[in-house]
Amino acid sequence: MVSPTARQKLRLRLEKLAQTQPADDQSERELNEKQSELNTITQQLDKVSSILALIETNDQRAATTEIFNRRIEKKKQLESELDHLQKKAKPAHSSDSEVNQVMQLVRLIELAEQPEDFGKAKKIFDLTNLRMFFRFEPKNRTKRMVNK
Q1: Which residues are CB-contacts of 72 (< 8 A; sequence separation ≥ 6)?
Q2: pTM score of the predicted model
Q3: Which structural domain, as residue segments, surrounds residue 64?
Q4: Fewest CB within 10 A of the end CB: N or C in the chain?
């Protein structure tokens, strides 16, 4: 059994560890990269459109329009990818919830160390959201039928 002071020290250590070592989130990094790329494309589109306004010859206009159209397509593609990433990105877990989960696990271990106490066994089932199902079948034992 873990004493309340030891439990409090463990909680403080876990909180400190959670603050100093944040979880590495690959999807968030990818989302930031796509957003940065989209910002770059948007700036390039602004430059190309201002250049288009100043062009006088048809050959220059055709070449610049081709670049402009490619940038528009790239922007649409990036917006679609960014939207997809934002939808699939899971919300960030707070360090408090992670610490609470670890502390619940410690509590489960404490409860499991006392197998003779049925009240504690029920708490384990409740905390883990565990469901148990039994199937009883009739058995003939001597002269009477028993469900076992």
Answers
A1: 45
A2: 0.45
A3: 24-91
A4: C
